[in-house]
Amino acid sequence: MSMNIFRLCGDMSHVFSIIVLLLRLRVARNAQGISLRTHELFLLVFLTRYTDLFTTYYSMYNSVMKVLYIATTASIVYAIRLQEPICSTYDKAQDTFRHWEFAVLPCAFLGFVTHLISGGGIFSLMDIQELLWTFSIYLESVAILPQLIVLQRYRDVENLTGNYIFFMGLYRALYIVNWIYRAYHEPGYRHHYVVYFCGVLQTLLYVDFFYYYVMSKRKGGRFSLPTQTK
Q1: d(CA 46, CA 136)
Q2: What SS3 class is residue 180?
Q3: Is 13 inside any structural domain?
Q4: Which of 22, 107, 165, 185 might form a disulfide with 139, Cβ 3.0–4.6 angstroms?
Q5: How far apart are CA 166 and CA 168, in angstroms?
Q6: Which residues, at least 6 apart from 148, have a Cβ–Cβ distance to it below 8 Å?
Q7: Is residue 166 part of a domain?
Q8: pLDDT-based confidence at residue 221 (cuts at 50, 70, 90)
C-alpha cells in the first residue's frame, strides 16, 4: 500500500485515538463508559487482518503499525478485564450488545460468501489469509457499535472518551479520502468495493456522534448525547 498524506493522517489519527484511550484508562483508573466488547472486536479485527506479519514483509512502517495496533488493543482488553482498579469500574450491565451473535457470526458468514464469490478457495495459506482479511473488513465496520450504545446509555461523555471516539471516526473518514486520492493518482490501483462499502458504513455510524461532539466543542459545554424518545 503506497503512502500519501491522507493515509498518514488517518494512521496518526488512529494511533492518537488509542493513546487517548490508554491515557484515559491509566489516568482516571476506571473504565466507566468504555465498551470492552468493542475492543474485543477490534482485537479480533487486527489478529485476523495481520496474519501476513508472519509471511510477508512490506516495510518497517507497515510492520510496526500492525504490531502496535495488536499490542495496544490487547493491553486495553487486559486492563478492562483483569487490571485493578480499572476492571472493578467496568459496568457490564451497560455493555450488553451481543457482539458474538450479532457482529462476529454475521461478518464471518459475509466474509466466507464474499471470498467464495470472488473465486477464493480454502485450501492454501494464501486463501485462508484472504478469507480472514475479508472477515476483518466486515467486522471493523461494525466494531464500534457496542461503544456507541454504551455512550448512548450513559449520555454524559467524559472528555477523553469523546476525543477517543472522535479520532477513531476521523481515521476512517481520512482513509476514504485516501482511497479516492489513490484511485485518481496511483496507476493500476486495485479497487476493493467491499472495503469501500464497509468504510462508508463505518463512517456513517459516527455521523450522529460527530454532530454532537462538534456542537459541544463550539458551545464549550459538557459533551452529552440527547435522550432517545420512544
Answers
A1: 7
A2: helix
A3: yes
A4: 107
A5: 5
A6: 165, 205, 209
A7: yes
A8: low
pLDDT at 96 over 80: yes
Tell me the HSE value of 59 on the side-chain side, using a 13 A CA sphere. Answer: 6
80-91 pLDDT per residue, tens: 999 999 999 999
For the entire predicted model, the pTM comes to: 0.93
Residue 123 domain boundaries: 5-219
Q: What is the DSSP string of 67-116?
A: HHHHHHHHHHHHHHHHSTTHHHH--TTT----HIIIIIHHHHHHHHHHHH
Of 64, 76, 67, 25, give the one whose Cα is nearest residue 46.
67
Give the chain's domain count: 1
| CB-CB contact of 4 with 182 (8 Å) | yes
Q: Which amino acid is at 33?
A: G
Q: Note whether residue 138 is domain-resident.
A: yes
Q: What is the pLDDT of residues 15-41, one digit of tens each?
A: 999 999 999 998 889 999 999 999 999
In angstroms, what CA-CA distances link 224 with 29, 31, 91, 143, 150?
Answer: 21, 18, 19, 22, 12
